[in-house]
Amino acid sequence: GMTTFFFAVQLLPFADAMTLFFLNPVVTAIVAWILLKEPLGTQGVIGIILSLVGLTLLIRPPFIFHSENGANWTSDKFWGTILALSGSVCAAGVFISIRFIGNRVHPVILALYYHVIACLSSLPFLLAKFPSSAVL
Predict the structure, then answer these.
(1) 20, 109, 110, 113: most buried by Cβ count inside 10 Å?
(2) Are the CB atoms for 96 and 38 separated by under 8 Å?
(3) Helix axis angle, 107-127 relative to 75-101, nearest 10°?
(4) pTM for the complete prediction?
(5) CA 45, CA 50: separation in Å to the nearest integer?
(6) Where along the chain do its domains lie?
(7) Residue 112 in 3-state DSSP?
(8) Transmembrane ranges (predicted)?
(9) pLDDT exceeds 60 at position 2
């Protein structure tokens, strides 16, 4: 998740990448409602709808917001948006996994595995010097 976020920061303005990445509570709420049968409630649904409206206003997809010059939707913006949202989905996956595991595993062991997996999954990108040092 963090690796895709760092790639997104290279392609998008930082504020846009942060906003897209921090939609992970919305993704978490939806997935928890579907998979874990967690209650969503009226406030949760309203929050999700408002977040998705905000997402639409932020990324301004060309099929909704027709631009006269077409310059607003570049390849960088498209891929940066995809990467930031995929990072958000990955972060939500971590939260769902932790919720699913619950009290069956000691929190220290859970933190250990999380950080070991994060380090190992980041290692190939770091060895290849991605993302660039300007982002790090």
Answers:
(1) 20
(2) no
(3) 160
(4) 0.78
(5) 9
(6) 2-127
(7) helix
(8) 12-36, 45-66, 78-101, 108-127
(9) yes
**Residue-wise pLDDT tens digits, 51-79:** 989 888 887 776 666 765 545 678 888 89
- Per 3-state DSSP, the chain is made up of helix, strand and coil in percentages (nearest 5) of 75, 0, 25
Phi, psi of 61, rounded to the nearest 5 degrees? -65, 140
Torsion of CA 39, 20, 47, 90, to 10 degrees: 0
- C-alpha to C-alpha distance for 45 and 64, rounded to whole angstroms: 23
Contacts 24+ apart (CB under 8 A), 81-86: 81/8, 81/12, 81/16, 81/20, 83/4, 83/5, 83/7, 83/8, 83/11, 84/4, 84/5, 84/8, 84/12, 84/16, 84/17, 84/20, 84/21, 85/20, 85/23, 86/1, 86/4
Average pLDDT over residues 25-33: 93
